[in-house]
# Entry
Amino acid sequence: MSQTPDATLANLKRTIDKNGMILRGAYLIADARLGAAGVVQQGAVAIAGDTVVDTGPFAALQPKYPGARILGDGRQLLLPGLVDAHSHGRGLSPIQKGVRNDFLENALFDWARGTVLAPELSAALCAWRHLRSGCTLLHHNGFDDDGDEGARRAHVAIRTYLATGIRLAFSPGVRDESKLVMGGEEFVATLPAELGDAVRPLVFFDKEAFADAYFRLFDELYDAYDGDDTKILLAPSWAHGASEAFMRRVRAVADRRGGVMIHMHLLQSPVHKAWGRRRHKKPTVFWLDDLGLVAEDCAYGHAIHVTEPEIALMGRRRVTVTSHPSCNFHMRNGITPVMPLRAAGVNVAMGLDDKTINDDEDAVMELRMMHKVHRLDTYELTNPPLDAYEALEIATVNGARAAGFAGRTGALLPGMKADAILVDLDRVARDPWIDPKFDIADAFVERAMGSDVATVVVGGKVVIEDRRPLTIDVDGLYREIRAFCAKGLTPEQRARADLLARVKPHAQAWYAGWHDGLVDRPFYRVNSRG
Ligand SMILES: [Zn+2]
# Structure
């Protein structure tokens, strides 16, 4: 599990009196995979530098490291930080920007009305929301990171995230196809001439130069930031927005670099499912397989509209799927078949995708959504639902693997990164009472909120202590965001939003009927007409 050699660990232990700390809880869940058997009552974690060096009962750890600083009042739950394995770092939600969420195909036009925050503001806000709700590792999946401006924004965002102390995986993301609609070249021909001329640059552009710029940006970011603490991933934004040539280059670059995760949106809507069959004459996952992109280093966001044969292949190849249950409701997408995916051997992780159930990027609430939504997979009385530890595993270790940190974070085991949270149990267990024999993971998953997270440690560094942010000036940040948003859209942004609003009804007509016959045999039992 650990990638830190024993000798290094022994050296680290010797330094704990000077620069180390002990986190203590009423309960320690060090590794969700161990289930209830892994819970340590009055448990603690000893940390030296950025690394976990020891775990066990507090009473046993404290005498071993007498000089270590002690954090936690002994009445809290201590567990690994949660992982958001798929988000876009937009900071304010579409709702906050005054745009209702809707079907993805509609939203891609509507979102043009939303303010685009400066990257230092969106990254800081995004980091703050994640940290305050106990998320210590965030994967920022870029979107339309094109050109010089895309590159500038990526650098600024990464530096801002790192300054907040959150652990980061960052994937610059682009689409070299389907920037307007799927099947754009034929679609443009259906538009009134004047509208068609206006959107042509979104469809017809130099794809080779575009791809060259993308891989230059990836190399630049990788060389500047990738390492033990931070990961840079590859991200063709969508399986439905990338040419075969682009995908082949993605595979080649991942192979050249070695160990780089490839992340893409996959089959989020029935329209995507239809597009795969029209464009490639086969299910999208089988097309990806032809390109070497169904492999252990591949992670797919959503994967809602996958078929049984696609799931079987994904399981055999040990791929990762990030599931974003709240987002899928916001976007009217459906429900990712998480239970069949897990049964097939897929590594399922959690993503917040900027659209959570309370619209506040609360990672604990999203964990609860994950736990609740997949109770719908069966009506068999003897089939157990996803249990609390499995939900926690999805939101910790599985997410770490999705973000390129397999074996490095997601659990609090000696040799791993010290990314941990202390959760107050006042509301969970003392409002006014909970059966003390009840399982602590169940109690947390059923009753906790992000606001119960008191203290957050990332890589041995305390970033939030007793709900006080130590790395972010939240009041100042909020003032800057309000001032920025008060300026409204630029004339160029407004003109673009107006243009896209005029194209939208044509796109709706273009996609009409695409999903016919493709959503008739769901995996989950929801209701029935007969
Ligand atoms: Zn997404």
